[in-house]
Amino acid sequence: MGVTEFLDEAGVNYEVSKHKPTFSAQSMAAAIHESGKYVAKPVIVKVDGKYAMCVLAANLKIDLKALKKQMSAKSV
């Protein structure tokens, strides 16, 4: 499932913006003249051997210890 499919399923309002290629979500936010806190980035993690997608604001980082606890996982 992609980010837009997830947001559609969750009933979240969003806007898709086109931009030139960038190397980070934060630089992409700058390219569209938007704060990183308003731009979503998908981050793929491996949880107990299975891949999962986390979606967070471009200006944030994943706390792997907190994610491990939240997912009741043995490894992240």
From TrEMBL:
<protein>
    <recommendedName>
        <fullName>YbaK/aminoacyl-tRNA synthetase-associated domain-containing protein</fullName>
    </recommendedName>
</protein>
<dbReference type="GO" id="GO:0002161">
    <property type="term" value="F:aminoacyl-tRNA deacylase activity"/>
</dbReference>
<dbReference type="InterPro" id="IPR036754">
    <property type="entry name" value="YbaK/aa-tRNA-synt-asso_dom_sf"/>
</dbReference>
<dbReference type="InterPro" id="IPR007214">
    <property type="entry name" value="YbaK/aa-tRNA-synth-assoc-dom"/>
</dbReference>
<feature type="domain" description="YbaK/aminoacyl-tRNA synthetase-associated">
    <location>
        <begin position="19"/>
        <end position="75"/>
    </location>
</feature>
<dbReference type="Pfam" id="PF04073">
    <property type="entry name" value="tRNA_edit"/>
</dbReference>
